């Protein structure tokens, strides 16, 4: 259902009676619940929170919804808002009833006061909050989400603590999360909570969050400054807090010491409980203010009672369950719930929307029932700034960021009446409700550049309602970008074609456009690009059409002019929908192609700002860091990815690659690969895990195990329809046999591959770069045959490789003598300055090409050129992905440095080889040669 349909269903309750309550108006809609102002038949006004209908049949969600009532009531303190009633309406939808509060959140008050509150107010408000928490802690309840948004200042000046929906009982609470998962808000999350260490969470954790709240209220800055909640979460898990004195040097020393102790990284150094922290606060702030906090409180409450008029009814019952639900499905733990304002624009604690992922200087936002995001100025002035045609689909609580005028990136906004974001795409009214929900979840995930999540959602939708046509289209469109066998992808496409007649014109054209890419053998990229270009002209304000047109151009980009076309399309997409993470990722990919690294990083930061959990952008940023040799940074970034997406199999593969690149123990890399296997699909378990395990064994010199796994992969490849699997397996076996001095065994592997190659369809995956490694096995026993095959390969590979790469990959594997090196160097092509490497090229191909170009130069006696190419090849963090080319490149680099007189550099390069393969089993030819040369140089290894 669309966001507009959701709002209509929710608004239908207004003016109706639900048991003994009359629903008067809608106050807010969150990811899991809608909140209303209502009147009991006895005249009492209340707030009622209804679970959204789509979740009413889910026992687990209903259980989470109801537990807030029991936990809040158990606290037994007037500052913890009780739940007055809970029941189920006539349609089977659970609801709970709470008092209707008047006032404002502490976050809103902080914003209206210039983002710094006076010491007097902080003392009074935090003392109130700590008193509530002390009562909760005494009952064994830890709140786990203390922050300014969840502290509500009533119009009498007293603070009420909201949102016990994710609270945890310290004993016997089976509703918490397992180790490795976390709930809460990153900017106010203590280290143990950010790390998902459930058993370490206790009263001291709430004290840390109180300290972080005080830090923000008194200084105007977060404890850990960061561009987005993803970075904040990583900082919370790994970094010690700054001292409050660093950002608020004029504060009394006693106040600074109180906050700093609350924010201690080590649990044992913090305030152990809210009761002790409150007692210390009363003493410290009383001394700083010159009179007891109780006396200060009288003045503060009197002033607030004057300021806050009871005219605006404000609600404390924020939509908590969306956080719980999102943590279960692997999304962000921070609440994305937004609220809708009534005519009075009441300052409601329900659905406060200035969450921690926003910059401190950003405006607050609110989401109207119709789904249009608007900026909300402080109460003293009202400025409405509309954001482009944005409908909010709340099935999984998508995060929405407000956007003011002047903040649009690079291109002006397009007319809202003509814009279509991906989440605006329609679905047939005959589709089953369950399929509609998963379809909408998939669209939201696509918008956030988490295509693996989107694909899984479309797959569920198609299975739940095979006659519903739109999920089949999106399943086919997303499947091609993931690592599925081409036969599987073509089956999805055939299923989409089977329902083609039930689709609208736009979706029929999308299928027609992608058909040459998916259903042709070989894939016809040019025709797909032409058709998508035509669609972009017909549907110039359709974000998804522009996205796919940009992808098509990027896949075939061979010159800067084509790359500029990609940028134009991607910028148009983000103009239509600034929250389209795909558009920002596309811009980043194009900048990478053009070698504009700073622009690439900026675009990825933007992607992760609008979609903090974007697996695709996190993946691309980590790969960019590894390509630049920033191995430690890549490892840190990957850990952050896993914090946000703890069940994403690609994240664990990237973790294994990053760990190997930083020299982590073998067991750590193995563990990451095992988690990748356990979380991935069957295709990953059967092939990718075995392949990377073989690479890991080879990297560590265990060629016996590597060969065993490669042969296991060979057996699996017999039934695989992915050419890439066949060529990788064959290249791996050839490398193992050559490295262990068994070159004769490599020949039948190469012959078998060549005989079977034509039976394995390539689809749209790039495989040619690995073929020379296989063909090289034919060099000595069949030189004439190798020359014919490799020459044909070099010509046919130019659609996948640059001329320079094709030349290096063809000649590099066999350039082990001066004669061959001279012949190869003489055949070196002159690369056109404007040539670009294919955008969808395997990311290790340029590194392989550099290594082999260096080897050719070495054999040809071009030593300075050899050093330059070989240093470029060993800099990136790709040890695990290519253990043979990378380790051999170090050996060749050692030789080149010898010839240029750099003995120390040569010894270092040989040392890398011997560290990896010095004790290889069976023996390593490269390591033996490195040992001899190192000994001759007198290297101390």
From TrEMBL:
GO terms for molecular function: kinase activity. Coiled coil: none annotated. ATP binds at residue 49. The chain crosses the membrane at residues 383-402. Keywords: ATP-binding, Kinase, Membrane, Nucleotide-binding, Transferase, Transmembrane, Transmembrane helix. Residues 313-337 have a biased composition (Basic and acidic residues). This is Protein kinase.
């Amino acid at each position: 259902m669309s966001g507009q349909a959701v709002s209509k269903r929710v608004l239908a309750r207004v003016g109706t009676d639900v048991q003994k309550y009359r629903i008067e108006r809608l106050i807010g809609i969150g990811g899991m619940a809608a909140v209303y102002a209502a009147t009991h038949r006895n005249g009492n006004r209340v707030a009622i929170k209804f679970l959204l209908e789509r979740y009413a049949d889910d026992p687990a969600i209903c259980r989470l919804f109801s537990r807030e009532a029991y936990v809040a009531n158990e606290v037994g303190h007037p500052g913890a808002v009780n739940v007055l009633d809970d029941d189920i309406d006539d349609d089977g939808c659970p609801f709970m009833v709470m008092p209707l509060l008047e006032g404002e959140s502490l976050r809103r008050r902080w914003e209206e006061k210039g983002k710094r509150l006076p010491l007097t107010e902080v003392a009074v408000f935090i003392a109130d909050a700590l008193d509530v928490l002390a009562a909760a802690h005494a009952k064994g309840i830890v709140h786990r989400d203390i922050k300014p948004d969840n502290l509500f200042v009533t119009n009498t000046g007293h603070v009420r603590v909201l949102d016990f929906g994710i609270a945890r009982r310290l004993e016997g609470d089976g509703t918490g999360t397992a180790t490795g998962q976390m709930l809460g808000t990153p900017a106010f999350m203590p280290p143990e909570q950010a790390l998902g260490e459930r058993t370490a969470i206790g009263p001291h954790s709430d004290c840390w969050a109180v300290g972080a709240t005080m830090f923000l209220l008194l200084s105007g800055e977060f404890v850990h400054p960061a561009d987005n909640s993803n970075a904040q979460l990583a900082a919370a898990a790994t970094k010690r807090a700054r001292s409050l004195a660093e950002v608020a040097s004029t504060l009394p020393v006693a106040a600074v010491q109180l906050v700093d102790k609350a924010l201690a990284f080590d649990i044992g150094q913090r305030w152990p409980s809210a009761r002790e922290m409150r007692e210390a606060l009363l003493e410290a702030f009383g001394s700083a203010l010159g009179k007891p906090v109780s006396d200060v409180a009288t003045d503060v409450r009197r002033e607030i009672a004057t300021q806050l008029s009871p005219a605006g009814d404000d609600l404390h019952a924020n939509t908590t369950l969306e956080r719980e639900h999102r943590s279960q499905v692997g999304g962000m733990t921070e609440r994305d719930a937004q609220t809708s304002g009534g005519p009075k624009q009441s300052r409601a604690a329900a659905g406060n929307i200035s969450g921690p992922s926003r910059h401190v200087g950003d405006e607050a936002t609110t989401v109207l029932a119709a789904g249009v995001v608007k900026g909300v100025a402080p109460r003293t002035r009202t400025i409405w700034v509309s954001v482009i045609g944005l409908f909010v689909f709340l099935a999984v609580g998508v995060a929405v960021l407000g956007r003011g005028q002047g903040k649009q990136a690079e291109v002006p906004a397009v007319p809202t009446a003509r814009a279509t974001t991906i989440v605006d795409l329609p679905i047939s009214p005959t589709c089953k409700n369950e399929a509609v929900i998963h379809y909408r979840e998939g669209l939201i995930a696509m918008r956030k550049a988490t295509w693996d999540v989107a694909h899984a959602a479309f797959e569920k939708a198609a299975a739940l309602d095979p006659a519903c046509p739109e999920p089949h289209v999106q399943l086919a469109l997303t499947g091609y970008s993931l690592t599925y066998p081409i036969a599987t992808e073509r089956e999805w496409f055939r299923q989409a074609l089977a329902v083609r007649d039930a689709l609208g014109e736009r979706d029929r054209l999308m299928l027609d456009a992608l058909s040459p890419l998916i259903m042709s053998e070989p894939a016809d990229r040019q025709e797909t690009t032409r058709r998508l270009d035509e669609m972009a002209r017909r549907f110039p304000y359709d974000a998804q059409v522009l996205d796919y047109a940009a992808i098509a151009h990027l896949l075939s980009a061979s010159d800067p002019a084509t790359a500029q076309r990609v940028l134009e399309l991607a910028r148009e997409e983000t103009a239509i929908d600034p929250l389209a993470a795909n558009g920002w990722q596309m811009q980043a990919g194009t900048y990478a192609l053009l070698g504009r690294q700073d622009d690439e990083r900026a675009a990825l930061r933007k992607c992760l700002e609008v979609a903090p959990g974007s697996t695709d952008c996190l993946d691309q940023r980590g790969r960019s860091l590894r390509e630049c040799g920033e191995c430690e940074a890549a490892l840190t970034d990957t850990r952050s990815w896993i914090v946000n997406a703890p069940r994403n199999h690609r994240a664990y593969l990237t973790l294994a690659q990053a760990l190997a690149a930083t020299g982590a123990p073998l067991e750590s890399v193995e563990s990451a690969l095992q988690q990748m296997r356990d979380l991935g699909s069957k295709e990953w378990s059967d092939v990718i895990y075995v392949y990377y395990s073989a690479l890991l064994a080879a990297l560590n010199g265990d060629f016996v195990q590597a060969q065993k796994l490669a042969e296991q992969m060979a057996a699996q490849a017999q039934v695989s329809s992915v050419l890439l699997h066949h060529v990788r397996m064959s290249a791996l076996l050839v490398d193992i046999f050559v490295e262990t001095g068994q070159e004769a065994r490599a020949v039948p592997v190469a012959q078998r591959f060549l005989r079977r190659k034509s039976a394995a369809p390539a689809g749209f995956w790039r495989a040619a770069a690995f073929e020379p490694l296989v063909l090289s096995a034919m060099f000595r026993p069949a030189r004439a045959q190798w020359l014919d095959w490799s020459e044909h390969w070099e010509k046919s590979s130019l659609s996948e490789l640059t001329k320079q790469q094709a030349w290096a990959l063809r000649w590099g594997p066999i350039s082990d003598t001066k004669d061959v090196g001279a012949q190869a160097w003489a055949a070196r092509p002159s690369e056109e300055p404007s040539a670009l490497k294919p955008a969808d090229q395997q990311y290790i191909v340029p590194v392989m090409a550099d290594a082999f170009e260096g080897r050719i130069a070495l054999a040809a006696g071009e030593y300075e050129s050899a050093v330059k190419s070989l240093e470029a090849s060993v800099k990136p963090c790709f040890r695990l992905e290519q253990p043979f080319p990378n380790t051999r490149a170090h050996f060749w680099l050692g030789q080149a440095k010898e010839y240029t007189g750099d003995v120390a550099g040569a010894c270092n390069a040989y040392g890398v080889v011997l560290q990896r393969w010095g004790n290889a089993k069976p023996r390593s030819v490269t390591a033996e040669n490195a040992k001899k040369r190192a000994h001759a140089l007198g290297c101390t290894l």
